[in-house]
Amino acid sequence: MKIFKRILLLISLAILLVVMINYPKLNIIAGYAAKNTASSVFVADRSLDFTNKTDNNFSPVNLASNAVDASKKVATSSVFGLLTRKAIYREGLGAVLTLTDAIENIPFLKPKRAISDEKAPFPYGNAEPKDTILSEIDYQKLNETVISVFGKNNSRAVLVIYKDQIIAEKYAKGFDKTSKILGWSMTKSITSTIFGILQYQKKLDVYDKAPIKSWQNDGRKNITIHNLLQMNSGLEWDENYDEISDVTKMLFLENDMTKAQEKKPLSGKINASWNYSSGTTNLLSRIIKNQFKTQQEYLDFWYINLIDKIGMNSMVLETDLAGNYIGSSYAWATARDWAKFGLLYLHKGNWNGQQLFDETWADYVSTPTPTSDGTYGAQFWLNAKPTFQDVPKNMFYADGYQGQRVYILPDQELVVVRMGLSWMDENAFLSGIISSIKK
Predict the structure, then answer these.
(1) Does residue 1 surpass a pLDDT of 90?
(2) Starting at the edge strand that comes first in sequence, how are the strands of the sheet with 74-79 ordered?
(3) Which residue in 55, 267, 303, 325 has its CB near the most CB atoms, within 10 A?
(4) What is the pLDDT of residues 261-282, one digit of tens each?
(5) H or E element in which residue 196 lies
(6) CA angle, corner 171, sides to 165 and 176, nearest 5?
(7) Is 404 helix (H, G, I), strand (E, B) or coil?
(8) Quick one: 222 exposed, middle or buried, by C-beta within 10 A (0-12, 13-18, 19+)?
(9) Mean of the per-residue pLDDT values of the chain
(10) What gap in Å lies between CA 164 and CA 149, rounded to an integer?
(11) What is the pTM (predicted TM-score) of this model?
(12) What pLDDT score was predicted for residue 18?
C-alpha cells in the first residue's frame, strides 16, 4: 500500500510538473481559440459548431473547449479547465482578447463606414458582373485548374479576374461570395498601402527616419520607415508560431501590440538584415496613428482612403485593446473584396479614374528587399527569385497564413485570389491559370 501511494504521488508530481512547464503554452492555445472563435462567429457570421470543426480543429488548438454568449458577444476558451481566455466583439473593431474583465465596459470609438454601391457591377460596385465569354480563355482548362485546389488542398475560395472580369469563381461548401475570410498576414499589404496613400497625399515620406522617440539615443535612430516596410531594420524578432515567442506573446498577451517591436534591440545591420516580423508591421500601424490628431481620424482614414474607397465594404480590420489596427494579421473580407485590392495594384493605384497612390508605389512594393533573396518587397511577397519557376518574375502577392493569397500578375492582366486552410502547389495552380489564356 505504501508503494502504491508513493507511485501515485510520483505520478501526481509528474503531472503537476508537466502542467507547470506547459502552463504558459496553455495561455497561447486558449488565447488563439478564444480570439479565433469570437472573430469567426461574430465577424464572419459562422456558427460555433462550424468554427470548431473547420477553424479550431488542428493541434494543439483543438485542446481548447470553446463557448459563446451570443447576447454579450463573448467567446471563452478553456484548456482542460486549467486556463480560460475570453474574447469580446466590438462593433466596427472586430474581436479582441481581454486581459481584464474591465475592458467589457469601456466605451470605444469605431470607424465611420461608407455605404456600399449595390448598383454598379463588380469590380467598381457590388452588383453582379455581366456574364461575358472571352474567346481567348480555355474555360475547361481554367476550371480544371481551379477545381484542383479544392478537396484535399482545403481551399475555401478561388477567384480569377482577367481584364477586370471574373473568369472563374468557386467556393467550398459553407462559403460563398458573401463569406468574410481572414487574410492573416495579407493585412500587412493593406498596412503598406496606407503608407503609399499617405505619401501620395504628402503627409509623410517613407525614406524619413522612423519617428520613434525611444530609439533616438542609440543606433536604432537611423532606421527609416522604408527599412521597416521592407522588414530590413536589423531589429531582433522571433516570428515562431510553434512556441512562446515574440509574435505569439504579442498577439495573445499584449494590450498594445505596437510596442513589442519597439522594445527590441538591433541584432543586425540596418538595410542588410532581412527578418520577417509581424511586430514591425504593428509598429508601422502606430506610426500611421501618430500622423493624426485624434483616434477617430486614425480609425477613419484606412476606410475612407482605401478600404471603402475601392468598395471593400465587407472588410473588418480588427484592433488591439489599445485601439491600434492590428496591421500584421487581422483583416477579414470576402474573396471578391480581396480581389479589388489586387486590382488596385494591377492598375497601379488608379481606381475607376481616381489615383489613390502614385503609380510608382506599385513598383516600390514589388522591388526586392536587400538580403531577402528576391522574395520580399515592402510588405508584399515577390517572385523575383523566382520562387515559382513557371510564373512570371514580376508577379507579386499578398501572403497570409495557411495559404491566403492575392496574386497580381501585371503582364497577364490577372488577379488571382485563393483562400484556404492549408498550402498548395502554387506553381502548378498559377501556371495552369496562365496557360488557360490563349495568346
Answers:
(1) no
(2) 64-69, 74-79, 83-90, 94-97
(3) 325
(4) 999 999 999 999 999 999 999 9
(5) helix 186-200
(6) 85
(7) strand
(8) middle
(9) 94
(10) 23
(11) 0.94
(12) 38
**Range 120-151 burial, b when 16+ CB lie within 10 A, else e:** eebbbbbeebeeeeeeebeeeebeebbebbbe
Contacts of 221 (CB under 8 A, 6+ apart): 209, 215
DSSP 311: T
Could you identify the residue written with the cell 541584432? 267
Cα separation, 134 vs 165, in Å, equals: 10
At 107, list the grid cell: 466605451
Burial environment of residue 45 by CB neighbours within 10 A (0 to 12, 13 to 18, 19 or more): exposed
Task: Find how far residue 30's CA is from the centre of its chain.
Answer: 20
d(CA 264, CA 227): 15
CA angle 261, 29, 43 (to 5 degrees): 80
Q: Given the C-alpha cell 469567426, which residue does it identify? A: 40
Q: How far apart are CA 307 and CA 305, in angstroms?
A: 7
Phi/psi of residue 303, nearest 5 degrees: -80, -45
Residues in the chain: 439
> Phi and psi of 149, rounded to 5°?
-100, 10
Query: Which three three-digit cell numbers place residue 35?
Result: 480570439
Q: Determine the average pLDDT of the residues in 125-146.
A: 94
CA distance 152 to 179: 21
DSSP for 50-79, written as a single string:
HHHHHTS-STTGGGEEEEEETTTTEEEEEE
Q: What is the DSSP letter of 206?
A: T
